[in-house]
Amino acid sequence: MAPNPAFDAIADADATAKRRPKNSLKGQQTKAAIVDAALGLATHIGLEGLSIGALAERMQMSKSGVFAHFGSREELQVSVVREYHVRFEDEVFFPAMKATRGLPRLRALFGNWIARTAVEIDQGCIYISGAIEFEDREGPVRDALVASMTLWLNALKRAVSQAKASGELSPETDEAQVTFEIHGLILTLHYQARFMRSTDALARAQTSFDHIMARYLPATRIQ
Amino acid sequence: MAPNPAFDAIADADATAKRRPKNSLKGQQTKAAIVDAALGLATHIGLEGLSIGALAERMQMSKSGVFAHFGSREELQVSVVREYHVRFEDEVFFPAMKATRGLPRLRALFGNWIARTAVEIDQGCIYISGAIEFEDREGPVRDALVASMTLWLNALKRAVSQAKASGELSPETDEAQVTFEIHGLILTLHYQARFMRSTDALARAQTSFDHIMARYLPATRIQ
Prior knowledge:
The structure is a homodimer of 223-residue chains.
Chain A: H1 14-18, H2 25-45, H3 52-59, H4 63-70, H5 73-96, H6 103-120, H7 126-133, H8 140-165, H9 175-195, H10 201-216
Helix pairs in contact in A: 2-5, 3-4, 5-6, 5-8, 6-8, 6-9, 8-9, 9-10
C-alpha cells in the first residue's frame, strides 16, 4: 500500500551530508551505525545529552571520525530525530495503513501508538523529552521535532475524518478535538507510568480512548 | 478554611538544614531569596540546569556562601521543588477550597490549574520538565517531585469523589479515571501550546474538561 503523502519523510536534512566525502557504502553504514547508537543514547539521556565525544567513545572511533559524518552536534541531533521518525512510521503508521480506511484504521493507528508507548515506558521517548528540551530553543533540532509531531498528529486527524466520512463516527465529530484528546492520553500514560510508576496507567489510557470513541459513535451504532 | 490534610507540605526536607548555622532571620531571608532565584532559573532551564556556581553569580554571593545554606546541589533542588509545591498550593489548591464542596470545588480546582498552566506556557513547568529529567533517576529530588504530584492528583480525585457523593456527578463516576483524563488535558495543553505553539490548545483543553464532565453528569441534570 502506498504511503500516505502527508506523513512521509520530513524536509531533507541530508542535503549537507551529501556534500561530504564519506558517501561510499561503508561510509553510509558507519553513519547509520552512529545514528543508531546516538538514538539509543538519546532515548535515555535526551537529545541534549548527546555529545560527539561520548559517541566516539561508544563507537570506538576518533572524535574527528564521528565529526566527518555529521559536521556538528546539531546535525547529529537532527539525524537522530529523523531516524526516530522513520522508526515511528514503520511501527505505528505504515502497518495501520493496511487496515480498512475509517474506524478500523483509526483503531489500528491508536493501537500501534499505545503499544509503542508501552514499550517506551522503559526507554523514554524523544518526542516527549525533546519537547521539553527544545520548548524555548530555536533551531533545526526543534524544527525537526515539531515537523515530525505535526505530521503525525495530522495523520491521526485524517484517520478520524475518514471515519467520520464513512459514517462510522457521527457527523458532529470534531477531528482536531479528538486528536487533541488522544494525544493527551498518550502523554498521561507516559507521565504516570514512566515517571510515577503507576501500574494502571495503560488500562486507564485504553479506557480514555473508549470514552472518546463512545462520544462520537452514531446513536444507532452498536459497538 | 482549614487546609486539606492530604495535600499539605511534603516530607520535611528541612531537617538537615536545621542543623546548619545560618538559622537567624537574615539567614532565612537569604535562603528564601536563593530559592526564589533558583526556582526562576529552574522553570526555564530545568532542575538539572541549576548549579551552585551559576546561582552564586546571580545572587552576587560567593559559592561557599550559597553552599552554607544548602550543602549540596541536590538539597537546593529539593528546596526548589518544595517551594514550587507551596506556590502551587497557594495558587491552585487553597483558593478552590473556598468553593462549595462538590462540583463547584472541582470546577474551581480545574479552573485554577488551567489558569496556572496558561501562565506557564511562557515559563515552563517543573512538574513537567522535572518528570522528564528524573524519570529514571533515583534520589530525593525525584521523590519530592513524585510526592508532590501524587498529593495533588489525590486532592483532585477527592474533589471528584465529593461531587459524586453529593449527587452532582453520577454514581458510576470512576474518580481515578476522571483524574487521569484531566491530567491528560493539562499535559497536552502544555505540549501543544508551549512546544508546538498551537493557538487553540487552551480552548481544546477547556472543551476536553466539558466532555469529561458531560459523561458523568446525571441524566436528569441540566447543565
